[in-house]
Write a structure and sequence with these properties.
Layout: H1 6-11, E1 19-21, E2 24-26, H2 36-51, H3 53-56, E3 57-59, E4 66-68, H4 77-93, H5 103-113, H6 116-119, H7 125-141, E5 145-148, E6 171-175, E7 179-186, E8 197-200, E9 215-220, E10 226-230, E11 254-264, E12 268-271, H8 274-279, H9 285-314, H10 320-345, E13 348-349, E14 355-356, H11 359-384, H12 394-398, H13 402-409, H14 418-432, H15 435-446, H16 451-461, H17 465-476, H18 484-495
Parallel strand pairs: 1-10, 5-8
Antiparallel strand pairs: 1-2, 3-4, 6-7, 7-11, 8-9, 9-12, 10-11, 13-14
Helix pairs in contact: 2-4, 4-9, 5-7, 5-9, 9-10, 9-11, 9-14, 10-11, 11-14, 11-15, 11-16, 14-15
The protein binds flavin-adenine dinucleotide.
Length: about 500
Protein backbone atom coordinates (compact mmCIF):
# COMPACT_ATOMS: atom_id res chain seq x y z
CA UNK A 1 0.00 0.00 0.00
CA UNK A 2 1.21 3.56 -0.70
CA UNK A 3 0.29 6.97 0.78
CA UNK A 4 -3.25 6.62 2.15
CA UNK A 5 -6.31 8.79 1.64
CA UNK A 6 -8.32 10.17 4.55
CA UNK A 7 -11.03 7.55 4.03
CA UNK A 8 -8.48 4.75 4.17
CA UNK A 9 -7.05 6.22 7.37
CA UNK A 10 -10.50 6.40 9.02
CA UNK A 11 -11.26 2.76 8.20
CA UNK A 12 -8.21 1.65 10.19
CA UNK A 13 -9.35 3.29 13.45
CA UNK A 14 -12.30 1.05 14.25
CA UNK A 15 -10.27 -1.90 15.53
CA UNK A 16 -11.49 -2.64 19.06
CA UNK A 17 -8.88 -0.52 20.86
CA UNK A 18 -9.59 0.32 24.53
CA UNK A 19 -10.15 4.08 24.72
CA UNK A 20 -11.68 5.72 27.78
CA UNK A 21 -13.03 9.28 27.81
CA UNK A 22 -15.31 10.94 30.38
CA UNK A 23 -17.73 8.32 31.67
CA UNK A 24 -17.34 5.91 28.81
CA UNK A 25 -15.32 3.24 27.10
CA UNK A 26 -15.56 4.21 23.46
CA UNK A 27 -16.32 1.57 20.86
CA UNK A 28 -15.81 3.61 17.66
CA UNK A 29 -13.73 6.79 17.76
CA UNK A 30 -14.86 7.86 14.28
CA UNK A 31 -18.43 8.11 15.55
CA UNK A 32 -18.04 9.49 19.07
CA UNK A 33 -18.68 13.22 19.73
CA UNK A 34 -15.36 13.57 21.59
CA UNK A 35 -13.35 12.23 18.67
CA UNK A 36 -15.28 12.27 15.40
CA UNK A 37 -14.31 15.85 14.46
CA UNK A 38 -10.60 15.33 15.01
CA UNK A 39 -10.73 11.95 13.24
CA UNK A 40 -12.00 13.77 10.19
CA UNK A 41 -9.51 16.59 10.78
CA UNK A 42 -6.68 14.09 10.70
CA UNK A 43 -8.15 12.36 7.70
CA UNK A 44 -7.74 15.74 6.00
CA UNK A 45 -4.02 15.62 6.71
CA UNK A 46 -3.87 12.35 4.74
CA UNK A 47 -5.84 13.87 1.86
CA UNK A 48 -3.48 16.86 1.72
CA UNK A 49 -0.66 14.64 0.47
CA UNK A 50 -2.73 13.75 -2.59
CA UNK A 51 -3.67 17.38 -3.20
CA UNK A 52 -0.02 18.49 -3.25
CA UNK A 53 1.80 15.39 -4.47
CA UNK A 54 4.82 17.34 -5.77
CA UNK A 55 5.53 18.65 -2.28
CA UNK A 56 4.25 15.80 -0.13
CA UNK A 57 5.03 12.55 -1.94
CA UNK A 58 8.16 10.74 -3.10
CA UNK A 59 8.86 7.25 -4.43
CA UNK A 60 9.81 4.62 -1.87
CA UNK A 61 13.56 4.00 -2.48
CA UNK A 62 13.00 0.24 -2.84
CA UNK A 63 9.50 -0.31 -4.23
CA UNK A 64 8.94 2.99 -6.08
CA UNK A 65 5.40 3.32 -4.65
CA UNK A 66 4.49 6.85 -3.57
CA UNK A 67 5.05 7.53 0.14
CA UNK A 68 4.91 10.70 2.25
CA UNK A 69 8.13 12.71 2.11
CA UNK A 70 8.22 12.79 5.94
CA UNK A 71 9.39 9.15 5.75
CA UNK A 72 12.53 10.15 3.85
CA UNK A 73 15.92 9.33 5.37
CA UNK A 74 17.66 12.56 4.34
CA UNK A 75 21.03 12.09 2.65
CA UNK A 76 21.80 15.71 1.70
CA UNK A 77 20.86 19.31 2.29
CA UNK A 78 18.67 19.15 -0.81
CA UNK A 79 16.76 16.22 0.73
CA UNK A 80 16.08 18.31 3.81
CA UNK A 81 14.82 21.22 1.71
CA UNK A 82 12.58 18.78 -0.14
CA UNK A 83 11.28 17.40 3.16
CA UNK A 84 10.70 20.96 4.37
CA UNK A 85 8.12 21.55 1.62
CA UNK A 86 6.07 18.49 2.56
CA UNK A 87 6.24 19.24 6.29
CA UNK A 88 5.14 22.81 5.62
CA UNK A 89 2.09 21.64 3.65
CA UNK A 90 1.03 19.49 6.58
CA UNK A 91 1.65 22.30 9.10
CA UNK A 92 -0.37 24.74 7.00
CA UNK A 93 -3.32 22.36 6.95
CA UNK A 94 -3.72 22.56 10.77
CA UNK A 95 -2.04 26.00 10.99
CA UNK A 96 0.31 24.27 13.38
CA UNK A 97 -2.52 23.69 15.85
CA UNK A 98 -2.06 19.92 15.91
CA UNK A 99 1.33 19.14 17.34
CA UNK A 100 1.41 15.46 16.53
CA UNK A 101 0.13 15.01 13.01
CA UNK A 102 1.61 11.69 11.84
CA UNK A 103 4.54 13.40 10.11
CA UNK A 104 6.06 14.00 13.58
CA UNK A 105 6.57 10.29 14.15
CA UNK A 106 7.36 9.61 10.49
CA UNK A 107 10.31 11.99 10.76
CA UNK A 108 11.33 10.46 14.10
CA UNK A 109 11.43 6.89 12.77
CA UNK A 110 13.09 7.92 9.51
CA UNK A 111 15.79 9.49 11.70
CA UNK A 112 16.12 6.30 13.77
CA UNK A 113 16.30 4.15 10.64
CA UNK A 114 19.07 6.41 9.33
CA UNK A 115 21.20 5.50 12.37
CA UNK A 116 21.41 1.67 12.51
CA UNK A 117 24.99 2.19 13.69
CA UNK A 118 23.66 3.59 16.98
CA UNK A 119 20.60 1.36 17.35
CA UNK A 120 22.64 -1.74 16.51
CA UNK A 121 25.44 -0.99 19.02
CA UNK A 122 26.21 -3.03 22.15
CA UNK A 123 24.82 -6.30 20.77
CA UNK A 124 21.48 -4.83 19.64
CA UNK A 125 21.85 -5.83 15.97
CA UNK A 126 18.51 -7.67 15.97
CA UNK A 127 16.72 -4.69 17.50
CA UNK A 128 18.17 -2.41 14.83
CA UNK A 129 17.11 -4.82 12.06
CA UNK A 130 13.58 -4.92 13.50
CA UNK A 131 13.52 -1.15 13.59
CA UNK A 132 14.58 -0.80 9.96
CA UNK A 133 11.97 -3.34 8.91
CA UNK A 134 9.40 -1.47 10.98
CA UNK A 135 10.20 1.87 9.34
CA UNK A 136 9.60 0.26 5.93
CA UNK A 137 6.18 -0.93 7.15
CA UNK A 138 5.44 2.51 8.61
CA UNK A 139 6.18 4.34 5.39
CA UNK A 140 4.62 1.86 2.97
CA UNK A 141 1.41 1.35 4.97
CA UNK A 142 1.29 5.05 5.90
CA UNK A 143 0.70 4.26 9.57
CA UNK A 144 -0.39 6.85 12.13
CA UNK A 145 1.74 6.51 15.27
CA UNK A 146 1.26 7.82 18.80
CA UNK A 147 4.14 7.63 21.26
CA UNK A 148 5.05 7.64 24.95
CA UNK A 149 8.57 8.38 26.10
CA UNK A 150 7.98 9.79 29.61
CA UNK A 151 7.64 7.89 32.91
CA UNK A 152 4.54 8.69 34.98
CA UNK A 153 4.88 10.92 38.05
CA UNK A 154 4.01 9.47 41.45
CA UNK A 155 6.50 11.28 43.70
CA UNK A 156 8.21 14.17 41.91
CA UNK A 157 11.05 14.28 44.44
CA UNK A 158 12.29 10.90 43.19
CA UNK A 159 13.44 12.38 39.87
CA UNK A 160 12.77 11.50 36.23
CA UNK A 161 14.16 7.98 36.09
CA UNK A 162 12.51 4.99 37.83
CA UNK A 163 14.45 3.41 40.69
CA UNK A 164 14.93 -0.39 40.71
CA UNK A 165 11.67 -2.07 41.73
CA UNK A 166 9.44 0.82 40.59
CA UNK A 167 6.13 -0.88 39.78
CA UNK A 168 4.52 2.07 37.95
CA UNK A 169 6.94 2.82 35.12
CA UNK A 170 6.72 0.53 32.08
CA UNK A 171 9.03 -2.48 32.41
CA UNK A 172 9.51 -6.03 31.23
CA UNK A 173 8.09 -8.77 33.48
CA UNK A 174 8.62 -11.90 31.43
CA UNK A 175 8.99 -13.70 28.12
CA UNK A 176 6.76 -16.00 26.09
CA UNK A 177 7.33 -18.05 22.97
CA UNK A 178 6.18 -15.06 20.89
CA UNK A 179 7.80 -12.11 22.65
CA UNK A 180 8.09 -10.27 25.95
CA UNK A 181 5.44 -9.22 28.48
CA UNK A 182 5.48 -5.59 29.63
CA UNK A 183 3.64 -4.00 32.57
CA UNK A 184 3.32 -0.42 33.83
CA UNK A 185 2.40 2.98 32.47
CA UNK A 186 3.75 5.84 30.40
CA UNK A 187 2.65 9.39 29.54
CA UNK A 188 1.24 11.11 27.52
CA UNK A 189 0.15 9.62 24.23
CA UNK A 190 -1.04 12.55 22.14
CA UNK A 191 -3.04 11.35 19.11
CA UNK A 192 -3.78 7.98 20.75
CA UNK A 193 -7.41 7.61 19.59
CA UNK A 194 -6.32 8.44 16.03
CA UNK A 195 -3.25 6.24 15.80
CA UNK A 196 -2.88 2.80 14.26
CA UNK A 197 0.03 1.86 16.50
CA UNK A 198 1.80 3.07 19.64
CA UNK A 199 5.56 3.61 19.81
CA UNK A 200 7.62 3.34 22.96
CA UNK A 201 11.17 4.63 22.80
CA UNK A 202 13.70 6.22 25.17
CA UNK A 203 13.13 9.48 27.01
CA UNK A 204 15.28 10.54 29.95
CA UNK A 205 18.29 8.26 30.61
CA UNK A 206 17.83 5.35 33.01
CA UNK A 207 19.73 4.61 36.22
CA UNK A 208 22.08 1.64 36.65
CA UNK A 209 20.21 -1.47 37.76
CA UNK A 210 16.99 -0.64 35.90
CA UNK A 211 17.66 -2.61 32.70
CA UNK A 212 14.09 -3.99 32.66
CA UNK A 213 12.86 -0.47 31.93
CA UNK A 214 15.15 -0.07 28.89
CA UNK A 215 12.59 -0.83 26.19
CA UNK A 216 11.68 0.35 22.71
CA UNK A 217 8.95 -1.18 20.55
CA UNK A 218 5.89 -0.48 18.40
CA UNK A 219 2.60 -2.40 18.64
CA UNK A 220 -0.94 -2.00 17.29
CA UNK A 221 -3.37 0.09 19.31
CA UNK A 222 -5.73 -2.86 19.77
CA UNK A 223 -3.11 -5.11 21.36
CA UNK A 224 -4.75 -6.87 24.35
CA UNK A 225 -3.94 -5.21 27.69
CA UNK A 226 -3.36 -1.71 26.25
CA UNK A 227 -5.61 0.87 27.92
CA UNK A 228 -5.80 4.56 27.01
CA UNK A 229 -7.29 7.03 29.52
CA UNK A 230 -7.97 10.25 27.63
CA UNK A 231 -8.24 13.72 29.12
CA UNK A 232 -11.60 15.49 28.89
CA UNK A 233 -12.52 16.28 25.33
CA UNK A 234 -11.99 19.83 24.06
CA UNK A 235 -13.72 19.06 20.80
CA UNK A 236 -16.25 21.90 20.85
CA UNK A 237 -19.16 21.60 18.44
CA UNK A 238 -19.04 20.00 15.00
CA UNK A 239 -19.69 23.41 13.45
CA UNK A 240 -16.64 24.98 11.80
CA UNK A 241 -18.09 28.48 12.02
CA UNK A 242 -18.58 28.32 15.79
CA UNK A 243 -15.40 26.38 16.54
CA UNK A 244 -13.13 26.57 13.52
CA UNK A 245 -10.22 24.85 15.28
CA UNK A 246 -11.63 22.75 18.12
CA UNK A 247 -14.27 21.21 15.84
CA UNK A 248 -11.52 19.36 13.97
CA UNK A 249 -8.10 19.64 15.62
CA UNK A 250 -8.48 18.22 19.15
CA UNK A 251 -5.72 15.65 18.82
CA UNK A 252 -6.28 14.28 22.40
CA UNK A 253 -3.76 13.13 25.00
CA UNK A 254 -3.95 9.83 26.85
CA UNK A 255 -2.36 8.20 29.87
CA UNK A 256 -1.32 4.70 28.77
CA UNK A 257 -1.53 1.56 30.89
CA UNK A 258 0.21 -1.60 29.74
CA UNK A 259 -1.68 -4.28 31.64
CA UNK A 260 0.56 -7.27 30.86
CA UNK A 261 0.94 -6.61 27.17
CA UNK A 262 2.75 -9.03 24.86
CA UNK A 263 5.24 -7.37 22.51
CA UNK A 264 6.20 -9.70 19.63
CA UNK A 265 9.92 -10.35 19.16
CA UNK A 266 9.98 -8.72 15.73
CA UNK A 267 8.46 -5.51 17.14
CA UNK A 268 11.17 -5.08 19.79
CA UNK A 269 13.76 -2.40 19.03
CA UNK A 270 15.43 -2.35 22.45
CA UNK A 271 15.08 -5.29 24.84
CA UNK A 272 16.59 -4.28 28.19
CA UNK A 273 19.74 -2.92 26.57
CA UNK A 274 20.64 -0.02 28.83
CA UNK A 275 23.62 1.29 26.83
CA UNK A 276 21.60 1.61 23.64
CA UNK A 277 18.60 3.04 25.50
CA UNK A 278 20.72 5.74 27.10
CA UNK A 279 22.63 6.58 23.92
CA UNK A 280 20.29 6.59 20.89
CA UNK A 281 18.49 9.84 21.70
CA UNK A 282 21.64 11.85 22.38
CA UNK A 283 22.95 12.71 18.95
CA UNK A 284 20.76 13.12 15.89
CA UNK A 285 17.20 12.67 17.22
CA UNK A 286 16.80 16.28 18.31
CA UNK A 287 18.03 18.10 15.17
CA UNK A 288 16.06 15.67 13.01
CA UNK A 289 12.67 15.91 14.70
CA UNK A 290 13.08 19.61 15.36
CA UNK A 291 12.81 20.31 11.63
CA UNK A 292 9.20 19.07 11.77
CA UNK A 293 8.22 20.70 15.06
CA UNK A 294 9.81 24.04 14.28
CA UNK A 295 8.25 24.29 10.81
CA UNK A 296 4.96 23.64 12.57
CA UNK A 297 5.70 26.29 15.21
CA UNK A 298 6.78 28.85 12.61
CA UNK A 299 3.59 28.27 10.63
CA UNK A 300 1.51 28.74 13.75
CA UNK A 301 3.30 31.98 14.65
CA UNK A 302 2.75 33.37 11.18
CA UNK A 303 -0.91 32.37 11.35
CA UNK A 304 -1.19 34.09 14.76
CA UNK A 305 0.28 37.28 13.32
CA UNK A 306 -2.16 37.25 10.41
CA UNK A 307 -5.10 36.50 12.69
CA UNK A 308 -4.21 39.23 15.20
CA UNK A 309 -3.78 41.75 12.38
CA UNK A 310 -7.14 40.78 10.86
CA UNK A 311 -8.77 41.16 14.25
CA UNK A 312 -7.35 44.66 14.75
CA UNK A 313 -8.38 45.66 11.22
CA UNK A 314 -11.94 44.45 11.58
CA UNK A 315 -12.56 46.94 14.39
CA UNK A 316 -10.08 49.49 13.01
CA UNK A 317 -7.98 49.29 16.14
CA UNK A 318 -5.04 51.49 15.20
CA UNK A 319 -3.36 52.57 18.45
CA UNK A 320 0.45 52.39 18.45
CA UNK A 321 0.32 49.74 21.19
CA UNK A 322 -1.66 47.44 18.90
CA UNK A 323 0.87 47.86 16.11
CA UNK A 324 3.68 47.24 18.59
CA UNK A 325 2.12 43.99 19.78
CA UNK A 326 1.46 42.87 16.21
CA UNK A 327 5.11 43.58 15.48
CA UNK A 328 6.07 41.45 18.46
CA UNK A 329 4.26 38.43 17.01
CA UNK A 330 5.82 39.06 13.59
CA UNK A 331 9.24 39.15 15.27
CA UNK A 332 8.65 35.73 16.84
CA UNK A 333 7.57 34.33 13.47
CA UNK A 334 10.57 35.79 11.68
CA UNK A 335 13.03 34.57 14.32
CA UNK A 336 11.50 31.11 13.95
CA UNK A 337 11.75 31.24 10.16
CA UNK A 338 15.39 32.35 10.36
CA UNK A 339 16.33 29.64 12.86
CA UNK A 340 14.83 26.89 10.70
CA UNK A 341 16.51 28.24 7.57
CA UNK A 342 19.89 28.59 9.30
CA UNK A 343 19.63 25.06 10.68
CA UNK A 344 18.78 23.68 7.23
CA UNK A 345 21.47 25.73 5.46
CA UNK A 346 24.06 24.41 7.93
CA UNK A 347 22.80 20.82 7.76
CA UNK A 348 25.45 18.13 7.86
CA UNK A 349 26.06 14.42 8.02
CA UNK A 350 25.27 13.49 11.63
CA UNK A 351 26.74 10.00 11.17
CA UNK A 352 26.17 7.01 8.90
CA UNK A 353 25.37 9.33 5.96
CA UNK A 354 22.18 10.65 7.59
CA UNK A 355 21.79 14.39 7.05
CA UNK A 356 19.94 16.46 9.62
CA UNK A 357 19.77 20.21 10.32
CA UNK A 358 22.28 21.97 12.54
CA UNK A 359 21.15 21.60 16.15
CA UNK A 360 22.06 24.94 17.77
CA UNK A 361 19.51 27.26 16.07
CA UNK A 362 16.78 24.73 16.80
CA UNK A 363 17.81 24.41 20.46
CA UNK A 364 17.60 28.22 20.74
CA UNK A 365 14.17 28.24 19.14
CA UNK A 366 12.80 25.32 21.14
CA UNK A 367 13.95 27.02 24.37
CA UNK A 368 12.14 30.23 23.45
CA UNK A 369 8.81 28.92 22.22
CA UNK A 370 7.39 27.86 25.64
CA UNK A 371 7.57 31.57 26.50
CA UNK A 372 6.61 33.02 23.11
CA UNK A 373 3.39 31.08 22.62
CA UNK A 374 1.75 32.16 25.91
CA UNK A 375 2.77 35.74 25.05
CA UNK A 376 1.16 35.39 21.61
CA UNK A 377 -2.06 34.28 23.30
CA UNK A 378 -1.84 37.22 25.68
CA UNK A 379 -1.42 39.65 22.78
CA UNK A 380 -4.42 38.26 20.92
CA UNK A 381 -6.53 38.59 24.07
CA UNK A 382 -5.31 42.15 24.65
CA UNK A 383 -6.07 43.24 21.10
CA UNK A 384 -9.34 41.30 21.01
CA UNK A 385 -10.62 42.41 24.42
CA UNK A 386 -14.43 41.96 24.86
CA UNK A 387 -14.88 41.50 21.12
CA UNK A 388 -13.63 37.94 21.49
CA UNK A 389 -16.76 37.24 23.52
CA UNK A 390 -19.22 39.20 21.38
CA UNK A 391 -19.30 37.02 18.32
CA UNK A 392 -22.63 35.34 17.47
CA UNK A 393 -22.92 31.69 16.55
CA UNK A 394 -23.95 30.22 13.22
CA UNK A 395 -27.39 29.41 14.66
CA UNK A 396 -27.86 32.99 15.84
CA UNK A 397 -26.97 34.29 12.36
CA UNK A 398 -29.48 31.84 10.91
CA UNK A 399 -32.40 33.21 12.94
CA UNK A 400 -34.40 35.49 10.62
CA UNK A 401 -35.58 37.79 13.43
CA UNK A 402 -32.14 38.13 15.04
CA UNK A 403 -30.10 38.45 11.86
CA UNK A 404 -30.95 42.08 10.94
CA UNK A 405 -30.18 43.19 14.50
CA UNK A 406 -26.87 41.33 14.54
CA UNK A 407 -26.01 42.78 11.13
CA UNK A 408 -26.61 46.30 12.43
CA UNK A 409 -25.30 46.20 15.98
CA UNK A 410 -22.46 43.74 15.64
CA UNK A 411 -20.86 44.85 12.41
CA UNK A 412 -17.21 45.80 12.11
CA UNK A 413 -15.43 48.99 11.08
CA UNK A 414 -15.48 50.32 7.53
CA UNK A 415 -17.02 47.68 5.27
CA UNK A 416 -16.56 44.65 7.58
CA UNK A 417 -19.99 43.04 7.96
CA UNK A 418 -21.16 41.30 11.14
CA UNK A 419 -20.69 37.81 9.73
CA UNK A 420 -17.07 38.43 8.69
CA UNK A 421 -16.29 40.11 11.98
CA UNK A 422 -17.76 37.22 14.00
CA UNK A 423 -15.77 34.77 11.93
CA UNK A 424 -12.50 36.50 12.79
CA UNK A 425 -13.23 36.80 16.50
CA UNK A 426 -14.57 33.27 16.84
CA UNK A 427 -11.38 31.99 15.20
CA UNK A 428 -9.26 34.13 17.53
CA UNK A 429 -11.14 32.89 20.61
CA UNK A 430 -10.83 29.28 19.53
CA UNK A 431 -7.11 29.94 19.05
CA UNK A 432 -6.50 31.54 22.48
CA UNK A 433 -9.48 31.17 24.81
CA UNK A 434 -11.35 27.91 24.20
CA UNK A 435 -10.80 24.69 26.14
CA UNK A 436 -8.64 23.42 23.31
CA UNK A 437 -6.64 26.67 23.27
CA UNK A 438 -5.80 26.16 26.92
CA UNK A 439 -4.67 22.59 26.26
CA UNK A 440 -2.63 23.73 23.26
CA UNK A 441 -0.85 26.34 25.38
CA UNK A 442 -0.02 23.58 27.86
CA UNK A 443 1.28 21.51 24.96
CA UNK A 444 3.57 24.29 23.77
CA UNK A 445 4.94 24.71 27.29
CA UNK A 446 5.71 21.02 27.82
CA UNK A 447 5.54 18.82 24.74
CA UNK A 448 9.27 18.20 24.65
CA UNK A 449 10.25 19.23 28.18
CA UNK A 450 9.56 22.59 29.78
CA UNK A 451 11.15 25.89 28.76
CA UNK A 452 13.24 25.79 31.94
CA UNK A 453 14.73 22.40 31.12
CA UNK A 454 15.32 23.39 27.51
CA UNK A 455 17.14 26.55 28.52
CA UNK A 456 19.34 24.58 30.91
CA UNK A 457 20.11 22.18 28.10
CA UNK A 458 20.85 25.08 25.77
CA UNK A 459 23.45 26.36 28.20
CA UNK A 460 24.97 22.89 28.64
CA UNK A 461 25.17 22.20 24.89
CA UNK A 462 26.26 25.68 23.82
CA UNK A 463 29.62 25.96 22.01
CA UNK A 464 31.55 28.32 24.30
CA UNK A 465 34.86 28.78 22.53
CA UNK A 466 34.15 32.27 21.19
CA UNK A 467 32.23 33.37 24.31
CA UNK A 468 35.21 32.34 26.44
CA UNK A 469 37.66 34.10 24.11
CA UNK A 470 35.68 37.33 24.32
CA UNK A 471 35.61 37.21 28.11
CA UNK A 472 39.11 35.88 28.65
CA UNK A 473 40.64 38.84 26.86
CA UNK A 474 39.58 40.99 29.79
CA UNK A 475 40.60 38.44 32.39
CA UNK A 476 44.10 37.82 31.10
CA UNK A 477 45.31 41.14 29.64
CA UNK A 478 48.05 43.10 31.43
CA UNK A 479 46.58 45.74 33.73
CA UNK A 480 46.88 49.27 32.32
CA UNK A 481 46.11 52.51 34.15
CA UNK A 482 43.99 54.26 31.51
CA UNK A 483 44.65 58.00 31.49
CA UNK A 484 47.91 57.57 33.37
CA UNK A 485 49.85 58.76 30.27
CA UNK A 486 47.66 61.85 29.92
CA UNK A 487 48.04 62.65 33.58
CA UNK A 488 51.78 62.39 33.30
CA UNK A 489 51.73 64.46 30.03
CA UNK A 490 49.82 67.19 31.84
CA UNK A 491 52.39 67.17 34.57
CA UNK A 492 55.15 67.40 32.00
CA UNK A 493 53.30 70.31 30.30
CA UNK A 494 52.84 72.11 33.60
CA UNK A 495 56.46 71.72 34.37
CA UNK A 496 57.37 73.15 30.98
C1 LIG B 1 -0.33 18.52 26.09
C2 LIG B 1 0.82 17.58 26.27
C3 LIG B 1 1.05 16.60 25.32
C4 LIG B 1 2.09 15.69 25.47
N1 LIG B 1 2.29 14.72 24.53
C5 LIG B 1 3.23 13.78 24.74
C6 LIG B 1 3.40 12.70 23.83
O1 LIG B 1 2.72 12.61 22.80
N2 LIG B 1 4.32 11.75 24.11
C7 LIG B 1 5.09 11.82 25.24
O2 LIG B 1 5.91 10.92 25.45
N3 LIG B 1 4.97 12.84 26.11
C8 LIG B 1 4.06 13.81 25.89
N4 LIG B 1 3.91 14.82 26.80
C9 LIG B 1 4.65 14.74 28.05
C10 LIG B 1 5.82 15.63 28.02
O3 LIG B 1 6.83 14.98 27.35
C11 LIG B 1 6.16 15.97 29.44
O4 LIG B 1 5.09 16.69 29.98
C12 LIG B 1 7.41 16.79 29.48
O5 LIG B 1 8.51 15.99 29.22
C13 LIG B 1 7.59 17.49 30.78
O6 LIG B 1 7.67 16.58 31.84
P1 LIG B 1 6.80 16.81 33.12
O7 LIG B 1 5.37 16.97 32.67
O8 LIG B 1 7.10 15.74 34.06
O9 LIG B 1 7.21 18.21 33.67
P2 LIG B 1 8.62 18.73 34.21
O10 LIG B 1 9.62 18.80 33.12
O11 LIG B 1 9.04 17.96 35.39
O12 LIG B 1 8.24 20.18 34.59
C14 LIG B 1 7.31 20.50 35.67
C15 LIG B 1 7.70 21.83 36.25
O13 LIG B 1 8.93 21.72 36.93
C16 LIG B 1 9.88 22.58 36.35
N5 LIG B 1 11.15 21.85 36.26
C17 LIG B 1 11.31 20.55 36.10
N6 LIG B 1 12.61 20.23 36.04
C18 LIG B 1 13.27 21.37 36.18
C19 LIG B 1 14.62 21.68 36.20
N7 LIG B 1 15.58 20.77 36.05
N8 LIG B 1 14.91 22.98 36.34
C20 LIG B 1 13.97 23.93 36.47
N9 LIG B 1 12.68 23.67 36.46
C21 LIG B 1 12.33 22.42 36.32
C22 LIG B 1 9.35 22.92 34.96
O14 LIG B 1 9.81 24.16 34.47
C23 LIG B 1 7.88 22.91 35.19
O15 LIG B 1 7.42 24.13 35.67
C24 LIG B 1 2.92 15.77 26.63
C25 LIG B 1 2.69 16.76 27.58
C26 LIG B 1 1.67 17.67 27.41
C27 LIG B 1 1.45 18.72 28.46
Amino acid sequence: MAARTGEEFLKGLNDGREIWVGNEKVSDVTDHPAFAGAARGLAGSYDIQHQFPDDCLMPDPETGELINVSHMIPRSKEDLKRRHKGLERCAEYTVGYMGRTPDYMNVTYAGFAGRPDEWGANGNEEGAENLIKYQKFLRRDDISLTHTIIQPTIDKSEGDAPKPGNDVALHKVGETEHGIIVRGARILATLAPFADEIAVYPGAPLLPGTDDYALAFCIPMNTPGLKFICRDSCAGSRNTFDHPLSSRFDEQDAFVIFDDVEVPWDRLHINCNMDVYNQVMRTSWFPNVMQQTMIRAQTKLEFAWGLAAKMAESINSVQPTQAQMLGEIWTFAEFARSCVQTAEDNAHDHGNGAWFPQGAPLVALRSSLPYWFPRVNEIIRLIGSHNLLAAPTHAQFSDPALRPLIDHFMRGAKDVDAHSRARVFRLAWDFTGSALASRVEQYERFYLASGARNQQLAHMLGERTRADRLVNRFLTEPIIEIGADRASNKKVGAAA
